[in-house]
């Protein structure tokens, strides 16, 4: 007969042996699993794991020819343009800088208060103002001293409205003409720097002034269908220009850079700015301030272009980088839009 104590010892011995085997087996499994990758670990990295987040595309908005490009005698129309543009900017959380022609505030020698009030609306909306000269002179056509005097005359109202508001002191050349000769350009740059100005460049210009003239002609003739056609073509052409400038920036810098769009406060943008900004956003852009865009190292590239035209800085930088001239390759607005814009009423 086997005593109960003997049976317990025998069972304990068996249990101990069994546990030892299990421990060895588990240790072996862990060792093998660490040495031999499983089917999951052997699988090539997925597309998701390899994908890197693309850099954010950014764009700064700038408006020229304030209070409005044309039609300042129609104060209600100018007010409608101002209110519409500012409403759209707010809806899209899009900062901007707006450049003023001081002379448009006057009728003869007298300032028209209603016109100055339009500028106050921009400032109240948080849009800083810059100098676009008093009378939109062309540096190609006048002596440098006359141009410099026009810059100073352009400071009167916008600087008063901006008093106490921290902002860069921005200047944009009319027609974006920066000087027909090296000497004139250098002297003008020195004058602007002495007055504390920072020149506002642009990379994208979509000929909106041509489309706006055609749009106004169509509306004036009561041809709503033609006006819609002009508007739609403007949005299509803007997309082509943005794509072109994206390609050019990659040629210049081997990467995407923050873009700066030059457009105008005009009849077209009274009705089409909402669609334009939506189009830009669909291309993956986020709107930033002009100063933020210019923090990119690309904007430290020298502008060594000298001539009578006013091309994008994407073309100007190619001079400093010894790259081939691509200005003639830039897409043109459709001929029918250009012709319509020139039609006499």
What does this molecule look like?
The chain is α/β, with parallel strands linked by helices. The protein has a domain at 57-206 and 256-307: Glycoside hydrolase/deacetylase (TIM Barrel, Alpha-Beta Barrel). The chain is 51% helix and 11% strand. It has helices at 4-35, 39-42, 47-50, 75-91, 113-124, 144-153, 156-161, 182-194, 208-220, 224-253, 267-282, 290-293, 313-320, 335-342; strands spanning 57-66, 96-100, 106-107, 110-111, 129-131, 170-171, 198-199, 204-205, 259-264, 285-287. α8 (182-194) links the parallel β6 (170-171) and β7. α10 packs parallel to α13 (313-320). The protein is globular.
Q: What is the quaternary state of this protein?
A: single chain
Task: Note the main sheet.
Answer: 6 strands, parallel
User: What are the segments in which pLDDT stays under 50 over at least 5 consecutive residues?
Assistant: 1-51
Q: Which band does the percent of strand residues land in?
A: 5-15%
Average pLDDT, rounded to a whole number, is 88
| CATH homologous superfamily designation of the domain at 57-206 and 256-307 | Glycoside hydrolase/deacetylase
* Overall CATH architecture of the domain at 57-206 and 256-307: Alpha-Beta Barrel
Listing every helix as H and every strand as E from the N terminus to the C terminus, the arrangement reads HHHEHEEEHEHHEHEEHHEHEHHH
User: What fraction, in percent, of the residue positions are helical?
Assistant: 40-55%
Number of helices: 14
Q: What is the count of β-strands?
A: 10
Radius of gyration: 32 Å
CATH domain fold name of the domain at 57-206 and 256-307: TIM Barrel
First and last CA, distance: 127 Å
The CATH class of the domain at 57-206 and 256-307 is identified as Alpha Beta
Structural class: alpha/beta
**What sort of overall outline do the alpha carbons produce when their principal axes are compared?**
globular
């Amino acid at each position: 007969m086997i005593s109960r104590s003997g049976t317990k010892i025998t069972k304990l011995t068996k249990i101990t042996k069994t546990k030892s085997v299990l421990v060895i087996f588990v240790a072996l499994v862990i060792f093998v699993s660490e040495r031999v990758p499983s089917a999951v670990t052997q699988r090539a990295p997925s597309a998701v794991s390899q994908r890197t987040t693309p850099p954010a595309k950014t764009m700064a908005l700038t408006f020229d020819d304030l209070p409005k490009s044309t039609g300042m005698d129609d104060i209600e129309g100018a007010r409608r343009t101002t209110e519409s543009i500012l409403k759209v900017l707010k809806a899209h959380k899009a900062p901007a800088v707006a450049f003023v022609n001081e002379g448009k505030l006057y009728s003869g020698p007298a300032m028209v208060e209603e016109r100055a009030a339009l500028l106050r609306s921009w400032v109240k909306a948080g849009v800083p103002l810059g100098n676009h000269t008093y009378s939109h002179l062309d540096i190609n056509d006048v002596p440098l001293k006359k141009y410099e005097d026009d810059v100073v005359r352009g400071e009167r109202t916008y600087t008063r409205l901006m008093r106490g508001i921290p902002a860069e002191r921005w200047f944009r050349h009319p027609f974006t003409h920066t000087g027909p000769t090296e000497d004139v350009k250098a002297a003008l740059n020195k004058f602007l720097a002495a007055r504390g100005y920072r020149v506002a460049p642009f990379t994208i210009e979509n000929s909106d002034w041509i489309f706006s003239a055609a749009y106004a002609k169509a509306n004036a003739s009561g041809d709503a269908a033609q006006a819609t056609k002009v508007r739609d073509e403007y949005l299509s052409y803007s997309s082509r220009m943005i794509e072109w400038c994206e390609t050019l920036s990659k040629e210049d810098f081997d990467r995407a850079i923050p873009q700066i769009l030059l457009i105008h406060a005009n009849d077209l943008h009274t009705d089409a700015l909402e669609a334009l900004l939506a189009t830009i956003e669909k291309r993956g852009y986020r709107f930033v301030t002009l100063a933020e865009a210019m923090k990119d190292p690309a904007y430290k590239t020298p502008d060594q272009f000298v001539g009578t035209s006013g091309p994008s800085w994407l073309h100007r930088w190619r001079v400093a980088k010894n790259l081939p001239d691509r200005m003639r390759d830039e897409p043109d607005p459709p001929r029918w839009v250009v012709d319509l814009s020139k039609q006499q009423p």
